[in-house]
Structure formats: structure tokens, C-alpha cells
């Protein structure tokens, strides 16, 4: 079945993809993370490779196998993900940000495990905002064609278009977050300068091939 989808629509193109969650350490045994299985990003990496692209997958911690013919770079934190992306972005034709990046990290990572207090006091954690990887890459000189993903829980189209313009990217793929987390299928809406394009609900694997075709079409 999969071969039905396969064209060489990205032949010779270099594609950089982020996937999975990031993990922001609080101390050596605890951290802050986001809900993401990595399935959508890994499926896209696989589909892009099937379409003839040279794919680099910058991945936060997941339980998934590296897709065939994809170069995987493992990272943990948002800063680590940004550093890796900056290394590859200037040689990339397309950047697809699928990772669920933690928006904040603690201002300081404790060197030792934070112990419970005898007086039952709770620790005071101070957070700082993480860099926006997608916006950073999109605002560079001569950027790759940048694609974002957004999981929203309300006002999908309105919030999505606003987010796309704020990040300065040509294409944003929006979905209903909780419905897609960990699931094998997904329903998305493509938002670009031309407006709204809704895709039917389908498996993440099939959706990945459809999205690769949509991206390839916009690239030309
Ligand atoms: N993204 C990123 N770096 C971040 C945050 C988000 O690269 N620090 C990317 C995601 O990979 C995704 C897109 O930006 O492709 C949208 O992520 P989202 O979390 O929906 O957007 P935010 O700008 O963080 O807005 P908010 O979480 O407040 O809705
Ligand atoms: Ca966010």
C-alpha cells in the first residue's frame, strides 16, 4: 500500500525535522517535559526519505526506532535541540518542526537531588522561557522552507493563522491536540497564504505521505 504514495517528489532535497518532546532537567532525577510520542515527526521523516529526500531527524527522547535511511540526532533539552538544528539548517531546503518543545525550563538546574523539607515546605522553582527553534530558524538569512505544527484546544484556525504569521513561516499544520496525542491517526488543517485546506482524518503514516506531497508542491 505504502508504495502507492511514493513518488520522488523530494529527490535531492535536504530535509531537517524535529520530533518528540524535549526534557528540561529540574535536578538529576526530575524534569519538565511535554506530551509527545514522536510518531508524527518520525512518520514524516520516513515519508520524506521515501520521497527521495536526505533526512536529518533531531529527536527528543522517544521510544521509536529510527526510520530507514534517516540520520537521527538525539537531543534532550530545547537548547540542545536548537543547537543541533542550527548546525543543519543552513544546508537544509526544508525545515519541519514537529517537536513538542517545552516552553519553559528552570532558571537553574540543581546539582543534587532536591530533598523534601522537614517542615513540608515545597521547593520554589523559577522558570525561564526556552528559545523558539522554529522562529529562530525562520528568521535567519535565506532560511529553508519552514513548516510548523500546532496543537490547539480551541479556535484552531484563528490561533493557527496568528501563530503562523508570528513565526514568519509559509505553512502551519494545525490539529486538535488532545485528540492526536499518542494516537495512531490524526486530522489536520493546512494554513498558508492561500487560506485553509482541511485534510481527512487518516493514520499518521498516510498523513505523513500526504503532507510530504503538499510540502513538495508548495516548494516548487
Ligand atoms: N516550536 C519550536 N520551539 C519552541 C516552541 C515551539 O520550534 N520553543 C515549534 C513547534 O515545534 C511547532 C510550532 O513551533 O512546530 C508551534 O508550537 P506551539 O507550542 O504550538 O507554539 P508556541 O509558539 O510555543 O505557542 P503556545 O505553546 O503558547 O501555543
Ligand atoms: Ca508551546
Automatic annotation (TrEMBL):
The entry lists its GO molecular-function terms as:
FMN binding; metal ion binding; phosphopantothenate--cysteine ligase activity; phosphopantothenoylcysteine decarboxylase activity
EC id: 4.1.1.36, 6.3.2.5
Stretches for region Phosphopantothenate--cysteine ligase: 15-220
Task: Provide the residue positions that the database annotates as binding CTP.
Answer: 103, 113, 131-134, 149, 163, 167
One Gene Ontology cellular component annotation?
phosphopantothenoylcysteine decarboxylase complex
DNA/pantothenate metabolism flavoprotein C-terminal domain: residues covered: 10-217
Key words, A-Z: Decarboxylase, Flavoprotein, FMN, Ligase, Lyase, Magnesium, Metal-binding, Multifunctional enzyme
Cofactor requirement: FMN; Mg(2+)
Keyword Endoplasmic reticulum included in the entry's annotation: no
Report the catalytic activity.
Answer: N-[(R)-4-phosphopantothenoyl]-L-cysteine + H(+) = (R)-4'-phosphopantetheine + CO2; (R)-4'-phosphopantothenate + L-cysteine + CTP = N-[(R)-4-phosphopantothenoyl]-L-cysteine + CMP + diphosphate + H(+)
Pathway as given in its UniProt record: Cofactor biosynthesis; coenzyme A biosynthesis; CoA from (R)-pantothenate: step 3/5; Cofactor biosynthesis; coenzyme A biosynthesis; CoA from (R)-pantothenate: step 2/5
Return one Gene Ontology term, BP aspect. pantothenate catabolic process
Tell me how the cofactor is bound. Binds 1 FMN per subunit.
Q: What does this protein do?
A: Catalyzes two steps in the biosynthesis of coenzyme A. In the first step cysteine is conjugated to 4'-phosphopantothenate to form 4-phosphopantothenoylcysteine, in the latter compound is decarboxylated to form 4'-phosphopantotheine. Catalyzes two sequential steps in the biosynthesis of coenzyme A. In the first step cysteine is conjugated to 4'-phosphopantothenate to form 4-phosphopantothenoylcysteine. In the second step the latter compound is decarboxylated to form 4'-phosphopantotheine.
For this chain, the family text in UniProt reads: In the N-terminal section; belongs to the HFCD (homo-oligomeric flavin containing Cys decarboxylase) superfamily. In the C-terminal section; belongs to the PPC synthetase family.
Which named protein is this?
Coenzyme A biosynthesis bifunctional protein CoaBC
Q: Which organism is it from?
A: Hydromonas duriensis
Q: What is the lineage of its organism?
A: Bacteria, Pseudomonadati, Pseudomonadota, Betaproteobacteria, Burkholderiales
Q: Which residues of the full protein are shown?
A: 180 to 399 of 399
